[in-house]
């Protein structure tokens, strides 16, 4: 008989590349959770899903969460409860009422509530401003493309310089979209997705390479070497982040 007992904890971590809304829906469907329970899971605070389970049950939880694109922590059960635990029992096995769970998730002070709302307002304003910039960038891209095509002077519609300019503007729009996705996911699960930030940096550096003018650089060779080293570092960091989830996740 397995005498080892474990606690199941979830802090909102997702498998890299997983959409947070899709993960929320899968977990809600798999465990038959209410909207408030799912909000508690993805509230940005570590949640204890189960306490004192055996290894077989812990493995089932790990498989269920991984199938939904989420990552849990399985830790040895402790006799001492955490200072501010957030207990969530999806199937009601613990026998604790919902009122106790809800009371544990409420902010402990007025300052906590004010900071929480202030943070949400700032993130929403930032998301709105990035959206406005993205729309303006798309309009500007359409205007430049129309102007370049209608001002044809040779055999080809666009010369090499115009193509590089358009590619650079395309990458600017792509960076804005990735920033929007990053801020939106932060608003949803209160976590910074490192892989998305690395992708934004890689895209920005790629745009720099596309629109780069080596003639204005004092030492083009060293400048290119520095860009190559920086790009290699970012790509290596992105590869390591994708490998952090371990084998069996399809990455």
TrEMBL record:
It is found in: Cell membrane. This is Uncharacterized membrane protein, DUF373 family. Its main location: membrane. It comes from Thiocapsa roseopersicina. InterPro entries: P_starv_induced_PsiE-like (IPR020948). One of its GO terms (cellular component) is plasma membrane. Pfam families: PsiE. It is a multi-pass membrane protein. It comes from the Bacteria. The chain crosses the membrane at residues 121-146, 166-185, 192-210, 222-241. Keywords: Cell membrane, Membrane, Transmembrane, Transmembrane helix.
């Amino acid at each position: 008989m397995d005498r080892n007992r474990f606690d199941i904890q979830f802090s909102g971590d997702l498998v890299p590349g997983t959409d947070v809304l899709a993960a929320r829906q899968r977990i809600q469907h798999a465990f038959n959770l209410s909207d408030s329970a799912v909000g508690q899971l993805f509230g940005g605070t570590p949640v204890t899903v189960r306490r004192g389970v055996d290894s077989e049950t812990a493995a089932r939880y790990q498989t269920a969460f991984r199938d939904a694109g989420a990552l849990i922590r399985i830790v040895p059960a402790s006799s001492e409860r955490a200072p501010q635990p957030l207990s969530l029992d999806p199937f009601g096995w613990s026998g604790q009422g919902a009122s106790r769970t809800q009371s544990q998730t409420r902010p402990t002070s007025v300052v906590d509530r004010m900071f929480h709302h202030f943070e949400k307002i700032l993130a929403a304003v930032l998301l709105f401003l990035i959206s406005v910039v993205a729309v303006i960038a798309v309009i500007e891209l359409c205007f430049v493309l129309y102007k370049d095509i209608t001002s044809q002077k040779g055999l080809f519609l666009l010369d090499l310089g115009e193509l590089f300019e358009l590619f650079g503007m395309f990458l600017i729009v792509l960076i804005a979209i990735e920033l929007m996705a990053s801020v939106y996911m932060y608003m949803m699960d209160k976590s910074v997705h490192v892989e998305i930030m690395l992708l934004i940096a890689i895209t920005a550096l790629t745009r720099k390479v596309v629109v780069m003018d080596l003639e204005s650089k004092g030492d083009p060779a060293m400048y290119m070497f520095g860009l190559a080293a920086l790009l290699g570092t970012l790509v290596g960091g992105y590869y390591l982040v994708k490998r952090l989830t371990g084998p069996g996740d399809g990455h």
